[in-house]
Amino acid sequence: MTVLPIFGLTDAVDSSEGSEPLPFGRWILQQAERGGLIGQLAAAAKSDRAFPRDGDPVDVRKRLSLQGADPDMHEALDDAEMDWKSL
Fold first, then answer.
1. How does pLDDT run across 28-85, given as a tens digit for each residue?
2. How far apart are CA 52 and CA 71, in angstroms?
3. Pick from 87, 75, 76: which is nearest to 19 by CA?
4. Residue-range domain boundaries for the chain
5. CA-CA distance, 8 to 37, in Å (whole number)?
6. SS3 call for 10
7. What pTM value is reported for the model?
8. How many C-beta atoms surround the C-beta of residue 55 within 10 A?
9. Which CA distances in Å does 66 have to 21, 22, 50, 77?
10. In angstroms, rounded to a whole number, what is the distance separating the alpha carbons of residues 52 and 25?
11. How far apart, in whole angstroms, are the C-alpha atoms of residue 22 and residue 28?
């Protein structure tokens, strides 16, 4: 947070430029209300106690493989990764 003096007063301004991006796993969990396959992926992730919440796309892909996810879920993961990277 940066404090800027303005005419003798100070205003707090949130400087999120240096903040860390939301981990991919947590971003996926936030997509549960989304429609389509990404929403289904998020719903499945929410019900999986071992889902890598702080994981990157590679970690999530490994978890899907371990669970024997169908090809549609792997495709949804690819789409989700593109959306997450665009943030």
1. 999 999 999 999 999 999 999 999 999 999 999 999 999 999 999 999 999 999 999 9
2. 19
3. 87
4. 35-87
5. 53
6. strand
7. 0.76
8. 17
9. 26, 24, 11, 14
10. 6
11. 10
